[in-house]
Design brief:
It is a single chain. This protein is α/β, with parallel strands linked by helices. The protein has a single domain, classed as 3-Layer(aba) Sandwich (Arginase, Chain A), CATH 3.40.800. 36% of the residues lie in helices and 10% in strands. It has eleven helices and eight strands. It has an eight-stranded parallel sheet with strand order 2-1-3-8-7-4-5-6, with helices on both faces. Helix 8 links the parallel strand 7 and strand 8. Helix 1 crosses helix 9 and helix 4 packs across helix 5. The two termini are 34 Å apart. It binds zinc ion (2 copies). The site of one zinc ion has 7 residues, from loops.
Length: 390
Amino acid sequence: MLGMSRLPRVIWDDALTSYDFGPGHPLAPIRVDLTMALARELGVLDRVEMSGCVPATDDELALVHERDYIQAVRRVSERGEPDVSRGLGVPDNPAFTGVHEASALVTGATLAATRAVWSGETDHAVNIAGGLHHAMPGHASGFCVYNDPAVAIAWLLANGADRVAYVDVDVHHGDGVQTVFYHDPRVLTVSLHESPRTLFPGTGDPSETGADCTSVNVALPAGTGDAGWLRAFDAVVPPLLREFQPTILVSQHGCDSHALDPLAHLMLSLDGQRTAYAKIHRLAHELTGGRWIATGGGGYELVQVVPRAWTHLIAEVSGHPLDPATPTPESWREYARARVRDLPPLTMTDGREPEYPDFADGYDPADPVDRAIVATRKAVFPSHGLDPLP
Ligand SMILES: [Zn+2]
Ligand SMILES: [Zn+2]
């Protein structure tokens, strides 16, 4: 596929920063602004094709969302007045003027990535502003108004894809995407997240298995670090995807699993996160002929974590992963210091080299991470013809 494939695609438009719930809200658009600046100044964007986007149409949004909900969001959008019955105008999702246009543009960007890959123009495409996985068909939830990954998957199904795998590594359960495809065995959703006992949205238990066990949930205990997280990924994701044989892979890369994230309690490092990105990339080449659409997602440590995590993601998508020891450019540090009151990171690594034993070589029934892995495998592996225990 080298030589034949065209440059991977990064979808970007400065207007994507208009997805802005206002001062003090955790999902601050500075996080994608600082990411694009870091990727640009490290030369990462020189190795991809940059492409713009247009807002998703109402018909495209209606692949997933109720028409009444889209109309309600449009009404909120005109005047910025709340509609609490639709989840807009509450602390998580403040109402703002232009919310429809900003949200439809985020979905449009993920659709642009999806069209580029499905048409064969490129193998991989990424929208770091996307990944709004909590939005429900009829209401906003968890900072998410329209569910761009779900719309992209529904679009793929409507355009001839027969088996879509969705892998969600955000620290929160990918509840919106799971809900949309819960009864559809053509879509395998796999979400690795902090246990619903300690984190929003309170769902994502392994017992939520959906049609033909195609809803897969790995609920990890608070405090799980790189080694446990990656061990769980390897024990669940590759075997299920190999069995499912997807036509195309859609992934959500929320980086709020990082130890510094203010909203959650997993303990991953940047190095654990970029290791996961590389694993997902390899699975696309192994299983889907390289067809891979990646999105951003959550991530609320705006300076130390998000820009570096998603610059690594774009670099992985480009086929030229960054040496983690790479220093951050001084010009970027100056830009970051001018925008936020924080000392920017000096290098692209947290200095970790995650190592962990393979689950297949044995497990400890008393270990909380291994118990989480076993619960997930017991819930869904037999339906896929796989042994739950090594
Ligand atoms: Zn999240
Ligand atoms: Zn590749």
